[in-house]
Amino acid sequence: MREHDRLFIGGDWTAPSGTGTIDVVSPHTEEVVGRVPDGTAADIDAAVAAARHAFDHGPWPRMTPAERAEIIGRLAAIYAERQQEMADLVTAEMGSPILFSIFGQAALPQMVLQYHADLAASFTWEEERAGMLGPVTVTREPVGVVAAIYPWNVPQFTLMLKLAPALVAGCTVVAKPSPEAPLDGFLLAEWIREAGVPDGVVNIVPAGREVGAHLVAHPGVDKVAFTGSTDAGRRIGAVCGERLKACTLELGGKSAAIILPDADLAATVEGLKMASLMNNGEACAAQTRILAPRARYDEVADALAAMVGGLAVGDPADYGTEIGPLVARRQRERVEGYIRIGQEEGAKIITGGLSRPHDRGWYVTPTLFGDVSNDMRVAREEIFGPVLALIPYDDEDDAVRIANDSDYGLGGSVWTADVAHGVEVARRVRTGSCGVNLYVLDPNTPFGGYKDSGLGRELGPEGVSPYLEYKAIPRPS
Ligand code: NAD
Predict the structure, then answer these.
(1) Atom of ligand 1 nearest to the CA of 250
(2) Distance from the alpha carbon of residue 232 to the mean position of ligand 1, in angstroms
(3) pLDDT on residue 461
(4) Does 184 lie in the same domain as 261?
(5) CATH code, 372
(6) Which residues are catalytic?
């Protein structure tokens, strides 16, 4: 049991203003495994004041990128040493299978930190240009106080996509974890103190939606960086628009994996185990629509059914587990609701269904729907669980049409023996990323969505830009 009775504000453990607490419940045992203060609007006010002070008066925005990178590098080194602890903690609070956690909930966030520490040396912070009347210095300045609001499914990763570029840019941050997965933020806060990040540069206040909305609208916040559902993203974007605040939105997805007729089926299905079902299917970029050529449909259905039906479902702390429990009872209801909807719509359950694999814990049986048409709700809406929809297509144009016939545009993949041709098909898919024979989020390259999947990009040098303003300083020659 991990109990915290203070919040990380102004570089110190600070008593919360309210008395409310958030119980963190293990999705495996359904028992309480942690308790943290439930942040209030007053706590947010205190955190924004601390971040504002650290930005307006502190050394952080005025330090050189290299000086900031040194401190970020120290944090990355502490992270690297203790990442197993982080992986275990995230698995305990939200049910990610430990083998996925070690990579996705700990190693990957650490890599993102290290990437940004290294990027400081090569990023173009300033340049001289020839202007109309003389030389112009074009420089980049930190945008100010950043609100980082993120979900429970990959809490450290989605936080780090915001925190690392904000820090290297010279911004200060108020981070708001979700009530489902707040514990990892407290562990990170300890490391932030140890690394010597100046007081007030990072503040962490777990809270629910209403308090999150207070943070978004706060006049002391200059930029909002949000990862979460499309509905919440729309509301946040509207508030930012009203106040002319910068914002980046990383939202939902319903990505397609296009299996071309020449694909090596065994390798494809093995690749889809990760690309479609990573993190219990609770992944924004999961390739949950599988597009199969009609001529090979039965063969693909059989191979996928063997993979999905053979997944080891159980205790997420067990190294043999491939699918753990869903984050909450509510999430299980949602996923089971979609399994019902799929049946009502006329999709066929090839494997899985509504029987629960365990009596205790919020488990569902990994499910593969066949005979899905792209207008069914199970093909259009984000389910956020281990449920896949197999959709037949006629030819390559039809496959691309189906992949693009979605409100979302986050990820995707193409599976083929001809990689060069796969790249050509990937170019036609209207999403922020589309892999060939794999799907990966790479710290070095931009990640984000078209359409209802969001606005802006995180990662790569492109992901630092939203944390910077341009400034031109012209002068006579
Ligand atoms: P959610 O939108 O309910 O909540 C996400 C976070 O936003 C939480 O911290 C929540 O407290 C806060 N929040 C919700 N409404 C808010 C509001 N109006 N103002 C301020 N804060 C608010 O999402 P969730 O159910 O926790 O997470 C799952 C969703 O996140 C899925 O849709 C998934 O696709 C998406 N996601 C997207 C990415 C990406 O990079 N595109 C990555 C991971 C998850």
Answers:
(1) 41
(2) 7
(3) 98
(4) no
(5) 3.40.309.10
(6) 250, 284
Task: Please check whether residue 448 lies inside any domain of the structure.
Answer: no
2-3 vs 7-9, strand pairing mode: unpaired
Mutate to test the pocket of ligand 1, among 22, 93, 161, 229 (most ligand atoms within 8 A of CB): 229
Residues 211 and 266 grouped into a single domain: no
User: Is 295 found in the same domain as 203?
Assistant: no
Is residue 415 domain-resident?
yes
The verdict on 234 and 261 lying in the same domain is no
Tell me what pLDDT residue 476 has. Answer: 97
227 CA from centroid of ligand 1 (Å): 5
Question: Please, which residues have CB within 8 angstroms of residue 200's CB and are 6 or more apart in sequence?
Answer: 10, 11, 50, 51, 53, 54, 58, 172
Buried-exposed string 317-326: b where 16+ CB fall within 10 A, e elsewhere: beeebbbbbb
Do 182 and 119 lie in a common domain?
Answer: yes
Query: Which residue's CA is the nearest one to ligand 1's atom 26?
Result: 151
pLDDT in tens, 73-84: 999 999 999 999
Tens of pLDDT, residue by residue over 300-329, are: 999 999 999 999 999 999 999 999 999 999
Does residue 323 contact residue 91 with C-beta atoms inside 8 Å? no
pLDDT tens readout for residues 411-451: 999 999 999 999 999 999 999 999 999 999 999 999 999 99
pTM > 0.85: yes or no = yes
Both 315 and 206 in one domain: the answer is: no
* pLDDT band for position 101 (cuts 50, 70, 90): very high
- 179 belongs to a structural domain: yes
Range of the domain at 399: 256-443
Do 170 and 240 sit in the same domain of this protein? yes
Number of domains in the chain: 2
Q: How many CB atoms are closer than 10 A to CB 348?
A: 13
Nearest CA to ligand 1 atom 21: 212
Euclidean distance between CA atoms 98 and 104, whole angstroms: 10
Q: If you take atom 42 of ligand 1, which residue's CA is the nearest one?
A: 284
| C-alpha dihedral, 108 to 114 to 119 to 120, nearest 10° | 140
Asked if residue 261 and residue 242 are part of one domain, the reply reads: no
**Residues having CB within 6 Å of any atom of ligand 1:** 149-154, 158, 176, 178, 208-209, 212-213, 216, 227-229, 232, 235-236, 250-253, 284, 382, 384, 410, 449, 454
